[in-house]
Automatic annotation (TrEMBL):
<protein>
    <recommendedName>
        <fullName>Lipoprotein</fullName>
    </recommendedName>
</protein>
<keyword id="KW-0732">Signal</keyword>
<feature type="signal peptide">
    <location>
        <begin position="1"/>
        <end position="19"/>
    </location>
</feature>
Length: 181
């Protein structure tokens, strides 16, 4: 019963925070709506053997160089290819917005034995998670381009949040613009 009350209170408060009025681009719970567009201004190369190209702090970064504690975005293709592919400049229409939460198993340091650290945990018993938004995009000219995914930083479950519109724009830098309807 208690969980049910908390769930409905959360939904009510979230609904009020996201309801009517002007979109607040600094609010982490104010997602870009369907009908927004992503205007890619510069061609992006997706490396062979990959389906994504990552952007963080306004520059292209490799998956290995990605700072998981800072907001980032990536364009994603539907099909894997062994050769490099280029996503050409175009205005992509956002046709669906999907929130996502992922528990991250991330070990930047060498593996510790004897159960000193649990997989996916920060050592305190709480999972580290990353909240993200999948912006599903459509294109007749480039049908293999599937979506733009933007993530907030990896954080403790209690503090993790999706990226704000401002954080998404900062991650995209001069490569792409996020335009709200």
């Amino acid at each position: 019963m208690k969980n049910s009350v908390l769930f409905w209170a959360f939904l009510l408060l979230t609904g009020c925070a996201m309801g009517g009025g002007k979109q607040d681009s600094s609010n982490v719970y104010s997602a870009p709506p369907v009908g927004s567009s992503i205007e890619l201004k510069t061609a992006l190369t997706v490396p062979g053997g990959e389906t994504r190209v990552y952007l963080q702090r306004g520059v292209v970064v490799t998956k290995k160089a990605l700072d998981r504690y800072y907001p980032s975005c990536n364009f994603e293709l539907k099909k894997l290819s062994e050769t490099d592919r280029t996503i050409q400049p175009e205005a992509f229409l956002v046709v669906r917005v999907q929130p996502q939460t992922s528990e991250i198993v991330y070990h930047p340091q060498p593996l510790q034995l004897a159960g000193l650290r649990s997989a996916g945990m920060d050592g305190s018993g709480r999972p580290m998670i990353m909240r993200a938004l999948h912006l599903w995009i459509g294109s007749d000219r480039q049908p293999d381009v599937m979506r733009l995914t933007c993530r907030g930083g990896l954080d403790d479950m209690a503090w993790a949040s999706p990226p704000s519109i401002d954080a998404m724009r900062q991650a995209l830098g001069g490569y792409a613009s996020l335009i709200l309807p």
